[in-house]
């Protein structure tokens, strides 16, 4: 199909429940029939194969209240900790890295602080396209005199605003960070007072980075030694600096190690725990931070409380009148592996589209098809919903639901229903509670606020956030334990306390080593494909593809001018793109922001070009995030049909 004939698929809004007939087709059903079919499948899987045969995928676009009830359903009704969300696909390494260093998985600073800092480092982040709201704050910071550096394999739209661009080779973030750290040490720019008081492991870190001289790093990263030195000195000598990253850091097989390598730089210089100085992972979806905060992850209860902590478990068990398994559940990655092994039999998927968002998408579809029972709760009939045994129509969280969401700066904000849902669509929480009742748990929540108040009673970080206070202050940042005091805008000020008892545990340096991408380039697959987002589209395009945009041009494989000339291809020409996992056909686009050997694609148009057929499921062993950013590919010209 020619590019001009391609149109984004128009996804129908779900307005009525659907169930699958014995013949294989989805048909309209009543709510009673759909809920009974859904509950019966969950009950059958748990009784036959045990509670861990069930898993729930929660939604990063739904409210905190929905995520709280969803994880409670998993743990109380189904008796398992197998709950996760697309946080695993993107920023789980950020949470893991920040938690290991500081004991908390949230970004350390507020958005406002980037407007009043002296230096901004955007590392692996095209925020102008992927996080445009945050980038407005960045632009204010630049107008207020801040210098900005961009570290990215591509010279992105964000990099065009930077004072310096460090175009590193994909997957060489750790060597670059280590070289910056070594230069800071050798130049005598370490904040020794902070390091000695608030950190641990500095001597081992200094020994680790010693081999990464500027010249050694240049050979591996492709970044000129002078540029590395310039960024090291600029970052270390700034009074206040903000180090921000996104999926260019996390979507690697060693994503958590990448995060630790960046955090090390903040520890070296004391750029954390102060207003305007911090580390900030930019979250892409409206409530991906909140989903994790609410416990919709397999290792933490709401309020980021460890499931392995008996005291934390006991508190929830008393309130919920249940017994919580004293072990971690399966991550999203492990869930898909368990589908293939048949250990996992039933999945409740709320607002996610893993059939198109997972790496190696053909494998993901095959694994979903192996399930005995799949229930999808969504607002659109996605490709995942089309595979389901039961489809439940939900409300849109941003316009048809009351509740709260939590953004990248840990700010909890109110959302309110503005319009009525179409047809028979129902609130997510109402649907979950209806299923719980059919499975023997008579849950009744008067409204979203009653859910929130239950959460507040169990999470000290959220206790001070009543709905009235959230409205009064237009949102509050966690931790907010007190109802009569406003929280700080930044985290970890304790690290600057002189009293060891007030300072608390030291922040350890992360001793991480360089580990190149798993999918190596060679003669058969000579190009490095990296993936990302564009300003005009959103995720797998289910929500954004139905709306016209003057910026949208569909999916292309983007090449630098030199590679396009070498392959003899022109803009708009269809080519075959292959990796070791699959093949797609895509038109060519030429981008001078790319360097020879580097190609770029997005996941926004999987119905016309399924980019995730090419990506590799090489996962971070700590966080479980796949290496979307580093696939080896080749391109081939197509033989014209008339030859």
Describe this structure in words.
- A hairpin with a 5-residue loop joins strand 1 and strand 2.
- This protein has 22 helices and 27 strands.
- A seven-stranded mixed β-sheet has the order 2-1-15-14-13-3-4.
- It is globular.
- Residues 1-5 have low confidence and may be disordered.
- The relative contact order is 0.17.
- Helices cover 32% and strands 17% of the residues.
- The longest helix has 19 residues, at 31-49.
- By secondary structure, the protein is of the alpha/beta class.
Topology:
Layout: E1 18-20, E2 26-28, H1 31-49, E3 54-57, H2 64-77, E4 83-84, H3 92-102, E5 119-123, H4 127-130, H5 132-143, E6 147-151, E7 164-166, H6 173-186, H7 192-198, E8 199-200, H8 202-209, H9 214-221, H10 225-237, E9 241-245, H11 247-250, H12 255-269, E10 278-281, H13 288-293, E11 300-301, E12 305-306, H14 310-320, H15 332-341, E13 346-350, H16 354-357, H17 361-369, E14 373-378, E15 390-393, E16 403-406, E17 411-415, H18 428-438, H19 448-458, H20 467-472, E18 476-477, H21 500-503, E19 507-508, E20 527-532, E21 557-559, H22 561-567, E22 574-578, E23 583-590, E24 598-602, E25 616-619, E26 626-627, E27 631-637
Parallel strand pairs: 3-4, 3-13, 5-6, 5-9, 6-7, 8-19, 9-10, 13-14, 14-15, 20-24, 21-23
Antiparallel strand pairs: 1-2, 1-15, 11-12, 16-17, 17-18, 20-27, 22-23, 22-27, 25-26
Helix pairs in contact: 1-18, 2-18, 2-19, 3-12, 6-9, 6-10, 6-12, 9-10, 15-17
């Amino acid at each position: 199909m020619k590019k001009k004939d391609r149109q984004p698929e128009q996804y129908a809004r779900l307005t009525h429940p659907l169930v699958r007939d014995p013949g294989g087709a989805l048909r309209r059903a009543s709510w009673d029939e759909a809920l009974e079919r859904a509950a019966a499948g969950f009950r059958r899987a748990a009784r036959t194969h045990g509670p861990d045969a069930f898993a729930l995928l929660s939604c990063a676009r739904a409210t905190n209240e929905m995520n709280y009830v969803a994880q409670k359903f998993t743990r109380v009704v189904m008796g398992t900790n197998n709950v996760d969300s697309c946080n695993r696909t993107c920023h789980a390494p950020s949470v893991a890295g920040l938690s290991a260093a500081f004991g908390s998985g949230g970004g350390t600073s507020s958005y406002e602080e980037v407007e009043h800092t002296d230096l901004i480092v955007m590392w692996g982040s095209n925020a102008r396209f992927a996080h445009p709201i945050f980038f407005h704050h960045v632009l204010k910071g630049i107008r207020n005199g801040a210098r900005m550096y961009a570290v990215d394999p591509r010279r992105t739209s964000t990099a065009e605003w930077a004072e310096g661009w460090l175009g590193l080779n994909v997957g060489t973030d750790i060597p670059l960070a280590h070289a910056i750290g070594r230069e800071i040490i050798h130049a005598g720019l370490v904040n020794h007072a902070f390091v000695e008081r608030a950190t641990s492991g500095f001597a081992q870190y200094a020994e680790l980075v010693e081999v990464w001289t500027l010249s050694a790093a240049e050979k591996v990263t492709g970044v000129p030694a002078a540029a590395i030195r310039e960024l090291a000195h600029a970052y270390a000598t700034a009074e206040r600096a903000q180090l921000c990253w996104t999926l260019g850091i996390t979507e690697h097989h060693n994503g958590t190690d990448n995060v630790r390598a960046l955090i090390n730089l903040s520890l070296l210089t004391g750029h954390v725990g102060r207003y305007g100085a911090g580390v900030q992972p930019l979250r892409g979806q409206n409530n991906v931070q909140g989903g994790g905060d609410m416990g919709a992850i397999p290792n933490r209860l709401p309020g980021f409380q460890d499931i392995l902590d008996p005291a934390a478990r006991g508190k929830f068990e008393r309130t919920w009148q249940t017994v919580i398994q004293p072990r971690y559940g399966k991550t999203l990655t492990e869930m898909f592996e368990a589908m293939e092994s048949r250990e996992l039999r039933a999945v409740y998927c709320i607002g996610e589209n893993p059939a198109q968002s997972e790496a190696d998408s053909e494998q993901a579809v095959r694994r979903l098809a192996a399930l005995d029972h799949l229930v999808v709760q969504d607002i659109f009939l996605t490709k995942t919903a089309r595979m389901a045994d039961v489809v439940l129509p939900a409300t849109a969280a941003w316009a048809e639901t009351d509740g709260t969401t939590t953004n990248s700066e840990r700010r909890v904000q109110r959302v309110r229903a503005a319009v009525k849902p179409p047809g028979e669509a129902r609130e997510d929480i109402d649907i979950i509670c209806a299923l719980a009742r059919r499975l023997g748990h008579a849950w009744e929540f008067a409204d979203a606020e009653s859910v929130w108040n239950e959460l507040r009673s169990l999470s000290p970080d959220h206790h001070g956030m009543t709905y009235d206070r959230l409205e009064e202050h237009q949102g509050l940042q966690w931790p907010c334990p007190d109802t009569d005091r406003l929280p700080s805008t930044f985290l970890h000020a304790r690290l600057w306390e002189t009293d060891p008892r007030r300072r608390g545990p030291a922040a350890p340096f992360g001793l991480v080593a360089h580990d190149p991408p798993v999918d190596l380039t060679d003669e058969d697959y000579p190009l490095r494909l990296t993936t990302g987002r564009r300003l005009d589209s959103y995720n797998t395009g289910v929500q954004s593809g139905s709306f016209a945009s003057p910026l949208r041009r569909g999916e292309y494989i983007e090449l630098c001018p030199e590679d396009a000339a070498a392959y003899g291809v022109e803009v708009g020409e269809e080519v075959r793109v292959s990796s070791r996992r699959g093949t797609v056909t895509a038109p060519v686009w030429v981008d001078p922001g790319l360097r020879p050997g580097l190609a770029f694609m997005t996941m926004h148009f999987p119905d016309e070009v399924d980019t995730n057929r090419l990506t590799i499921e090489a996962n971070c062993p700590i966080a479980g995030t796949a290496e979307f950013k580093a696939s080896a590919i080749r391109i081939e010209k197509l033989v014209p049909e008339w030859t």
